[in-house]
Amino acid sequence: MKYTVTILRFNPEQDEKPHQERYSIEAQEGWTVLDALNEIKWYRDGSLSYRRSCRHGICGSCAMTIDGVNRLACETQLATLKSEFVVEPLRHLRVIKDLIVDMEPIYTKLLEIKPYFIEKGPPPSDHERLQSPEENKKLDGLYECIICGSCTSSCPSFWADGEYLGPHAFLKVNRFVADSRDEGKAERLKLVDNRHGLWRCHTIFNCVEACPKSLNPTKAISALKRALVGGQF
Amino acid sequence: MVIRHYRWHTGTWAWILHRLSGMALISYLVLHTWVIHHIQRGPEEFDALMEFVTSPLFKFGELGLFGVILYHTLNGIRIVLVDLGWTVELKAQKITFWALVAIGIIALGLGAYGFFH
Ligand code: FES
Known about the structure:
heterodimer, A: 2 domains, two-stranded antiparallel sheet, 8 helices, binds FE2/S2 (inorganic) cluster
C-alpha cells in the first residue's frame, strides 16, 4: 500500500522556520507510523529526527501529532489512517529538531506536584505498607501514565498558559491523593489550587481523547476539584 | 507553524461554543442595561426605543438570544455533571452533549412557536 507522509520539519541550526516535506512510501501490511518513519529515516533521508525506544507503547518517547491528534507513532497502524497523512511534533513544546520536542516543561510540572509517596511517621519496620485490594483498586487508571506528553500538549488551556500544570500532572496528583497510604493529600491539593492549577481546566476532554493508554485525566481533575471543594466544608 | 489544525472533538466544540455564547451573553447584558437605562429619560424616549426594539428584526434577535441562553445553560449543566463525576467518561460526556443539544433544539422550537404565534 502506498502512503504519502507529510512531515513538519525544523532544524533550528539551519532553518529559520519549520517547513513541510513529503515522502511517498510503500508500506507493508501491519506497519505503524513508526515503521513509516523508520523507512524514511533508514532508506530515504537520514536527517529526519524523532524519538523512539520501546516501539510497543510503553516508553512514551514517540508521541507526536498525527493527522491533527496526539498519538504514539509506534501504536498507530497505518491502516487506520488515510493514504495521505500529516506528522507534526507535539504542540506548544519547543522543537529541538523535527519531531523531537523539549519535554522539560512536562517533567518539571510533574516534579512540582511531588510525585512520590509522602508519609509523616517512620516507615513500619516489620512489614510493607499494606492496603486492601479495594483500596488498591482505586488507583487503577491513575498509575499507568507513561508520561508521553500527549495529553498536556493537546490541551487548549496549556496552549494558552504555558505554566498550566497540565492533565498529566493532575493525574499523578490524584494517583497519590487517592492512595490510602499517602499522607500528603493536603499539601498536594494546595499545590493545584491556584491560577495555573485545577481551575484552568475547561473540561474540553482533549486530554482524554489523546491519551494512548486510555486514561482519563479529566476524571482525576474532577475528583480533585471535589476533594478541594469538599475540604472547605 | 502547524500543517493541520488540531482535531476538534465533541468536547472542543462544546467548549468553544460555551465561550462564544458566554461572551455573547455579556455583550447582551451591556446592551440590555443600555436600553433599560432609557427609562429614566422619560416616557417618550423610552416608548420610542421600545417601538424600535419590538420590530420584527429584533424578534428574530430575541429568538437568537434565547438560543444562546439555552446553549449556555444546558452546556453549563453538562459541565456540572462532569465536575460531579457523573458523566466524566469520554463517551458519557459526548452522549450528554448530544442529548442536551436535542433538548435545546426542542426548547428552541417551542420558543420560536411562542415568539411568533
Ligand atoms: S516507542 Fe516507546 S512508546 Fe512508542
